[in-house]
Each structure stands twice: as structure tokens, then as C-alpha cells.
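#struct-pred

JT: dropping the chains for the assembly here, can someone run the whole complex?
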Amino acid sequence: MDARRESEPTPMKNRTTTERKSDRELVVTRTFNAPARIVFEAWTKPELFKRWWVPKSMGMSLLTCEMDVRVGGKYRLVFGVGGSKVMEVFGKYIEVTPHSRLVWTNEEGDEGGAITTLTFEEKGGQTLLVKHDLYPSKEALDGELASGAADGLPEQLEQLDELLVTLGGSVGRS
Amino acid sequence: MVQYSQTRLDASFGALSDATRRGVLEQLGRSDASITDLAEKFHMTLTGMKKHVGVLEQAGLVTTEKVGRVRTCKLGPRRLEEETAWIERYRQLWASRFDELDKVVEELKQKEKADGRKKRE
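RK: done, full complex below.
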């Protein structure tokens, strides 16, 4: 059985798209080769969610992952580098329709944050996932783009590593 | 995608490594502001704020213009370029997230299949 599995071609990774749909909207799409109930499960069970939300290239880990997936229920994610907290995101679920739709607020900013709508559309055993972020204003999304310019870029994180090494080496000298 | 030279990366990264400067960018995303406005908003001295704005200006993230005695700051020419680059980086982040999610989904699928077989037996 293992031999057969080895001879199977590696499935192609499906493409992720991102688009600024309008002044206030940011949309991410991706197709998964599984029914919606499975993809939905991976988004709503913390023990599963934890396994994919923070890819290695982010250079961080998830220290806390709390999700109370029901209308009005809260979530809280704490990110860390080397065990120390660097970032926290939280909000609450405002719509929970099993296997097809999740809506939550993002409340970590100083002002009203974006509303995220996640839809799971099943077709022929595959699921099209659409993540739609609606910001309260153009300025809020612009600000996110400007202030988030340092996020998630592996090269920059590598640079940060180098910087930390440099700083570590110079401690006590300054 | 926009290619960044190492020097520019250094400049942007340096500029963005500071919470106040990121706050200033966010603020300027909402509206232009004078150095005095920004100093007040961030509870800083004028000199301190001038320094921060100087770093952002060097990185091309902010431009300033002096009219009379007031120096007005606005988001710089690299805004659009930054935006395109940001959206691409955002895509990469989600792509790597979803590649991990694929693995979880695949595992769940196999488990469901195995459970289904058990039930039928």
C-alpha cells in the first residue's frame, strides 16, 4: 500500500489569490481538495487551527489559541517569538453557520477593526474558501497596509534574526 | 512584484521597526498632519518627532513640505509600491498558511475514510 502511495503523483498546490477589491475590502481565496465540513472543522477546532495558522516562515509561534466558536463567542490568539509575547489578536464571532459561513470581528486595533467573513463553498468534493475583510474606512485599510509593511516577509524576518544576533553581541557595550 | 534593493529594505525595515513610526504612518494614512500635531498626538517633543519623521522620510515612506512656519507630513511616493508589495507578501503568508492547512485537511480526510470503513465493517 505504501508503494502505491509513493507512485502517486504529488498533488498540485492550489493557488492562493489576494486582492484589494475596493477602498475598504481585502479578499483572499483558495480551493481545498476536501469537502466543506472538513475545511470548516480545521478553522473552528483550536487543536487543528493551531497546527496551520502560524507557518514557519512567519518566524513566530502561537502561545495561546482560544476559540469559542458560537455567535457572541470570543477568540484570542497570542503570538510569540522565543516564548515571549509579541502580538495578540482577539474579537468575537458574530455569525456561525456550520460548514458554510463564519463572521468575526477584529478588535485588537485602537479603533473599530475589520469584519472578517469566511465562506466555504463546496463543489464536486472541493471547497472554495473566500476570506473577505471589510474595514470601517479606506483610511483604516490604508493604515493597515502602511503599518503592516513589515509583516510576514521572510527576508525581513531573516534580517531581524541577524539584527538580534548583532544586538545580542553588542549588549553591555552600549 | 516590486524588487527591493538591500539598502531600501534596510531603510524600510529600520523605519518600520519602531512602534511610534508605525503609528505615525497609520495616522498619516488617515490625514496629513504637521510635526506639531504628530508630536502632540504621540506625546513627544518636537525634536523627537522631527527625528522620527526624518527616518520615515529617508525611507521614502513620508514626504514633508514646509508652508510658512508649518511643516506638513504626508505619506510618501512609495505608498503605492508598498501597497502592491504588501498585498503580495500578504498572499505569500496566506499561501504558506493554506499549504499547512492542506496537510491538516488531508489528514482529516484520511481519518474520515478510515472511520467510514470501520463503521461499514
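JT: nice. Strands of chain A lie at 17-22, 25-32, 61-67, 74-81, 84-97, 101-105, 115-123, 126-134. The mean pLDDT of chain A is 81.
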